[in-house]
Design a protein that fits this description.
The structure holds 3 protein chains of 3 kinds.
Chain A: H1 15-53, H2 59-63, H3 76-107, H4 112-124, H5 129-143, H6 150-175, H7 178-186, H8 191-219, H9 223-227, E1 233-234, H10 248-256, H11 264-292
Helix pairs in contact in A: 1-11, 3-6, 3-8, 3-10, 4-6, 5-6, 6-8, 7-8, 8-11, 10-11
Chain B: H1 21-40, E1 70-75, H2 80-93, E2 97-100, H3 105-114, E3 119-122, H4 128-136, E4 142-151, E5 153-156, E6 165-166, H5 168-175, E7 196-199, H6 205-218, E8 229-230, H7 234-243, E9 247-251, H8 253-259, E10 264-265, E11 267-269, E12 274-275, H9 279-284, E13 291-299, H10 300-305, H11 307-318, H12 323-326, H13 334-344, H14 349-352
Parallel strand pairs in B: 1-2, 1-3, 6-11, 7-8, 7-9
Antiparallel strand pairs in B: 3-13, 4-13, 5-9, 5-10, 11-12
Helix pairs in contact in B: 3-4, 11-13
Chain C: H1 7-18, H2 22-59, H3 62-67, E1 71-72, E2 80-81, H4 84-115, H5 118-131, H6 136-156, H7 166-190, H8 194-202, H9 207-218, H10 220-236, H11 239-244, H12 262-271, H13 279-312
Antiparallel strand pairs in C: 1-2
Classes of the chains: A mainly alpha, B alpha/beta, C mainly alpha.
Chain lengths: 295, 374, 314
């Protein structure tokens, strides 16, 4: 077929092709709107919270005990309760989770037992938090006789975040290239020395990220702690792990369900405090992941 | 789900910070700025302003500020607001750790009989069967204190203009098992809309009392209805009634006061005309049959072994004329209050330091040494 | 000439290579102990749940539990323990939350994976992941104070919308689960090899067609796993439904009905004090066992699908 230069050939699409392209171009905006829809709902909720809670938030609010009068009801006992529970949860859960991950990834022989442990952890990660709550009630509160104490709460939360922390740590350890291990072993180190001096430091950013995300999850947990009995009116500072306690999410729940609008400002201010803490933790986790990632 | 990450980073990558330095700094600064400004919001905050409430009565002979230890309280959600108020005021004068739960009257008495708590809130008297169960656990020195009068309030929605006054028989018809389905079933001139019924659960003393007074009180064989919305949480009942034109429910008068104008009280006609659940009507005894006493229970053993519990109860009793009314309940007559206060008088010397020998306490097992008289 | 080791000497040398100091063996022993804690946890869950569930079925017949259509556990003496109203309540919120979350979540995933500029993606994806960390009590607060009063009632009318309804909880659940569905689906789509897309583009397909006819089918098992994960989380969610959906067991899928989910009932029992040995206490565990079985099946299904998906591309 001869090419003639008599007529300029237009490359513009026509007919069916043009239609398809137009639809595709339109779809970009449809999908963008859909994506932003969820985000904008949350932005609006954040705005509404700040609007309601701005007037209530203050240093006095953070240092006052709950009260029957909304103007005087503060977060003091719940902030302390949260702090106490989180410290114990971290101490109990994190070393155990990292140790489990190290064992599974580095030391465990590739047999049925290891497969079972892995599968088991994957399943535990999907168990609802309220189930951990009733297990905590049956085992820690009733059977071990700890009562609705900080320790019982910490043990319950530790069980809850153990699987997700193990999974995150396992992933981080897996990211360390095999060459690191091989090099260390080739130079005569034992397996443990390899793990301790090379693998763990390499995986540490990922482990810390996963840990902080798990802690943020535990800090926001309500249902499990309500199930073990942490719902009373608390008007004192916690000084022992055997104390009764309440936490910030539970206090927010308490104010949410009171009738009328009296406590709306308090609940909103409490949400602001909780969100600052949790978003802060998430931000730190992401920053650590980005800043220190080696592999 | 792992994604395969590329392991080939450019040479020297480990020497360079992988994040865009300036953007990160901006984000962090922005976050810190907003966090700080939240606290700075305290400057313009309205928190802490408003009516602080009545002054509580503090007996100068009791060394409240040297009291130590803990007091555990649980039980009725009806009595909870009073105990909460007492705990709140008490913690201003004392460092004793008080906590108050609201598992329900039945639940509270169970815990009390197991020895899990020191004081049990109850919106009905303890039953003989419960006293027996306490005795089974070795507890046979239960002490009862009446703390207030409740005008158990039946509530309807503000838009309900027809059912503002009802007889106990009509209430019985609404709340009994197999009872009225629509308002018209009660009185033919009322609308034919179906009634939405709200009620507390079996753990609640309020339920027990209403069951006795209105259900069994009219017909011994009847049962309480169970096809409406039940909840142990009085707040949920209040919200439910406030939001539904055809709703009806009941709870202690304190929850009615707290709910304000979102719900309306039903006046009860027990033969003397329509009597509203007001302070005066309950105090004078005209609001029948739904006036009831509210109680707290403890043990003689506990108040002798734990001075801080005794101090708390003393504080509670001293303020029976002030705090129950502050939260919306009805104060008992002066004479009845004094009668309650007399109950603890023989024990008071353990916390004032006076020993007139009229009472011999058991072996003292306190937590932080003897108190001193101020 | 290298010395070869036999028998006793061989195993001795191998052991020395693994553990130079006896302390190291101890450390590894500790690690094993930690790993077994996870197995003990599952054992504790199973024993705690099923032990009390067995006690429950001494008082309530299996027939009533599995075939009864009324659940009334509050008012004696006529308690009934048919599980279906609670299961229906859970199904109700799952249905209505997925109706909103699925299209929006997938749209977000497709946009991020196929359309977004890498820099946009770098901003939006962390935001999406951060949103997944919002505590559920926050959503509960909004469902109760905002959604019903300021959204549903003005739109649908005061009479049609009871204060406690499934729709307000479902809408908040959808917002809660959207980041998870979007994030996991987007991961699945990112794993689809570039060559598949490039082949399609090379044949003249538009971006939309590549997204829906090439990438989504290729990532389908990952997307399905994401959906199952989302459903599992909604099934297990407690605070939002307990606060906003109500505490009236109701056998219906009507979004404007007041209902009670399995988790809502469990929280209700937990808030009161159910004494050990009473049927109230054991019913808590019976419902808990049912919940556990449901989420377990969903998670196993998700894992199986992910497993199959992994094989296809490795």
């Amino acid at each position: 077929m001869a090419l003639t230069a008599s007529e300029p050939v237009s490359l513009k699409a026509t007919g069916a092709v043009a239609r398809r392209q137009a639809v595709s171009r339109a779809s970009r905006w449809v999908l963008l709107v859909a994506t932003l829809l969820g985000v904008s709902v949350l932005v609006f909720l954040a705005y509404d919270t700040v609007r309601n809670g701005w007037n209530v938030l203050s240093w006095d609010f953070l240092t006052s005990y709950p009260s029957r009068r909304a103007a005087f009801a503060g977060l003091r006992s719940s902030v302390l309760g949260t702090a106490w529970v989180m410290v114990f949860t971290i101490v109990i859960a994190i070393p155990m989770a990292v140790a489990t991950a190290v064992y599974i990834e580095e030391f465990a022989p590739k047999n049925w037992f290891t497969r079972l442990v892995r599968l088991n952890i994957a399943n535990l990660a999907g168990v609802p938090s309220i189930i951990y709550g009733i297990v905590g009630l049956a085992v820690f509160v009733r059977m071990l006789g700890l009562g609705p104490s900080i320790l019982a709460g910490a043990l319950t939360l530790a069980l809850m975040i153990l699987p997700m922390t193990v999974i995150a740590s396992s992933e981080a350890i897996r990211q360390v290239p095999p060459s690191i291990r091989d090099g260390s072993l080739a130079l005569g180190a034992t397996q443990w020395q390899t793990v301790w001096f090379h693998v763990l430091p390499g995986a540490m950013p990922g482990i810390m990220t996963g840990t902080i995300l798990s802690i943020a999850r535990a800090a926001g947990e309500t249902a499990a702690l309500i199930m073990i009995g942490a719902f009373a009116f608390i008007a004192f500072d916690n000084t022992s792990p055997f104390d009764d306690f309440t936490t910030v999410p539970i206090q927010i729940y308490n104010w949410t369900i009171r009738p009328g609008d009296a406590f709306r400002g308090n609940a909103s201010a409490g949400i602001m405090v909780l969100m600052v803490a949790i978003v802060g933790m998430n931000l730190i986790a992401v920053l650590i992941r980005e800043r220190f990632r080696r592999y | 789900m792992t994604r395969a990450k590329p392991h080939h980073l450019p040479r020297g990558a480990h020497l360079r910070s992988p994040i865009h330095g300036r953007r990160t700094r901006v984000v962090i600064l922005g976050f810190l700025a907003s966090a700080v400004s939240l606290l700075a919001a305290g400057c313009g905050s309205a928190f802490g302003t408003g009516q602080p409430g009545p002054e509580s009565i503090v007996d100068p002979n009791i060394a409240y500020e040297s009291a130590r230890g803990s007091v555990r309280i649980d039980g009725s959600s009806t009595v909870f607001p009073i105990s909460e108020a007492v705990a709140e005021e008490f913690s201003k004068v004392s460092r004793v750790r008080v906590n108050v739960g609201f598992s329900g009257t039945g639940g509270g008495i169970e815990k009390f009989c197991r020895g899990d708590i020191d004081i049990s809130n109850a919106s009905r008297p303890i039953k003989p069967g419960e006293l027996e169960r306490c005795a089974d656990h070795g507890i046979n020195d239960v002490m009862e204190f009446q703390v207030a009068i409740d005008a158990l309030t039946v509530v309807i929605n503000p838009e309900n203009s027809w059912a503002a006054c009802m007889t106990p028989d009509e209430l019985h018809e609404i709340f009994r098992d197999g009872g009225a389905r629509t308002w018209r079933d009660i009185r033919p001139e009322w609308p034919a809309d179906s009634i939405t019924v709200y009620y507390p659960g079996a753990d609640s003393g309020t339920f027990d009392y209403f069951n006795e007074a209105i259900i069994h009180g009219v017909d011994k064989e009847a049962d309480h209805r169970s096809d409406g919305t039940g909840s142990e949480d009085d707040n949920i009942l209040a919200r439910g009634v406030a939001s539904d034109r055809n709703a009806i429910g009941y709870f202690g008068i304190a929850y009615f006061s707290e709910a304000g104008s979102t719900i309306r009280a039903v006046e009860v006609d027990d033969g003397e005309g329509c009597i509203a659940p007001t302070y005066e009507n309950a105090y004078s005894g005209r609001y029948t049959p739904l006036s009831r006493p509210l109680f707290i229970y403890t043990r003689e053993h506990i108040i002798t072994e734990k001075p801080q519990v005794l101090a708390f109860i003393k504080f509670y009793l001293d303020n029976l004329g002030v705090l129950p009314a502050d939260v919306g309940y009805v104060t008992m007559p002066e004479a009845d209050i004094e009668e309650q206060q007399h109950i603890v008088e023989p024990f008071l010397h353990t916390i004032t330091g006076d020993d007139d020998g009229s009472y011999r306490p058991g072996p003292w097992q306190g937590e932080e040494g003897r108190w001193l008289r101020r | 000439m290298a010395e070869t080791l036999e028998g006793q000497q061989l195993s001795e040398a191998l052991r020395k290579r693994r553990f130079r100091h006896p302390g190291e063996q101890l450390i590894v022993g500790l690690l094993v102990a930690c790993a077994t804690v996870s197995l003990l946890t599952t054992a504790a869950i199973v024993v705690a749940l099923f032990g009390e569930t067995v006690a429950f079925f001494r008082d309530v017949s299996l027939f009533e539990f599995f075939f009864g259509t009324k659940w009334q556990a509050l008012i004696p003496p006529n308690e009934q323990f048919g599980i279906w109203p609670l299961v229906a309540g859970t199904a109700n919120v799952v249905l209505w939350s997925m109706i909103f979350a699925l299209p929006l979540g997938l749209a977000a995933a497709i946009y991020l994976s196929e359309y977004a500029h890498p820099r946009t993606r770098k901003i939006l994806k962390p935001i999406l992941e951060a949103l997944a960390g919002v505590p559920t009590v926050v959503y509960a607060f909004f469902a109760l104070t905002f959604v019903t009063e300021d959204v549903l009632r003005p739109v649908l009318g005061d009479d049609r919308v009871p204060f406690f309804n499934s729709l307000s909880a479902s809408l908040m659940l959808a917002v809660m689960i959207l980041p998870t569905i979007a994030s996991v689906s987007e991961d699945a789509m990112a794993n689809v090899p570039r060559e598949l897309r490039e082949g399609a583009y090379g044949l003249g397909a538009t971006r939309l067609e590549v997204a829906f006819r090439v990438v989504v089918p290729a990532a389908l098992s990952g997307i399905i796993a994401a959906v199952l994960l989302g459903i599992s989380r909604v099934v297990g969610e407690t605070m939002i439904v307990a606060v906003a959906a109500g505490s009236t067991p109701n056998l219906t899928l009507d979004p404007l009905a007041t209902i009670q989910t399995m988790t809502g009932y469990m929280l209700q029992v937990g808030l009161g004090d159910a004494a050990r040995g009473t049927i109230n206490y054991t019913s808590l565990f019976a419902v808990g066992s049912t919940l556990f079985v449901f989420t377990f099946m969903l998670n196993v299904a998700a894992q199986l699908i992910v497993g199959r998906f992994r094989e296809a591309y490795e």
